[in-house]
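User: Here's a chain of 267 residues. Predict its fold as tokens.
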Amino acid sequence: MDSLNLARAIRREALKMVHNAGASHIGSALSIADILAVLYQDILNVSAVSVGDRNRDRFILSKGHACVALYAVLAELGFFEKSLLDEYGREDSILMNHISHKVPGVEFSTGALGHGLPFGVGKALSAKINKEAWRTLVLASDGEMQEGSNWEAIMFAAHHRLDNLTLIIDHNNLQSLTTVVDTLNIQPLRQKLVAFGWEVREVDGHCHFELLEGFRPKMTGAEKPLAVIANTVKGRGVDFMENSVEWHYKSPNEEELASALMQIANA
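Assistant: Prediction complete.
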């Protein structure tokens, strides 16, 4: 399966999970489908058979509320049986409403924002100290960049020259109730990251070629951590969900699900 078809499958399964569970955060999941597809298809050195290998790359979904997108990609790639997706959101299910490390292929449980990057920094530092070649990649939301814990981690990573660390920022400009700018403005984001000592790349978060180039390891000897600002559209792929803050919490009904699935299939 190529990354484009994988992204389509992620969106399809995420929509079905959220609908069946009457759950939230579908807009957040749809905005990162292309990012996850490129990472798991073309970048990450990890698979269902190497999930316990010490030399695997570590991927951390810091925006844990978008868990259905990661559950979907892991199921599509055989980390666990796809039928398990039907259990998402049930009281006794390991597929919780925020990402859980109990799920095969998930490195770290997140939910409260601002925790994934500090954890990832620790992983990257460990690899650096032990002279191991695996990479750590963390996917955070733009609203999450309002958390002070992230900026402490960003400062720490630059100080320790963690060039084996990549922070991906899902920059869709919306958070739970309104825009990021109106909640707590994080701009100028690129300049801030540069000032903190990071290499920064900015890409179209739905263009698989740009994502692929953005995620590639650096060839320079600068010894800087890498931040990839991925400009995305919340709710991407479903016209009535795109750029609409209500789909942070709203769950699609039967009619809305059918329309959304048709749009994904015909994309």
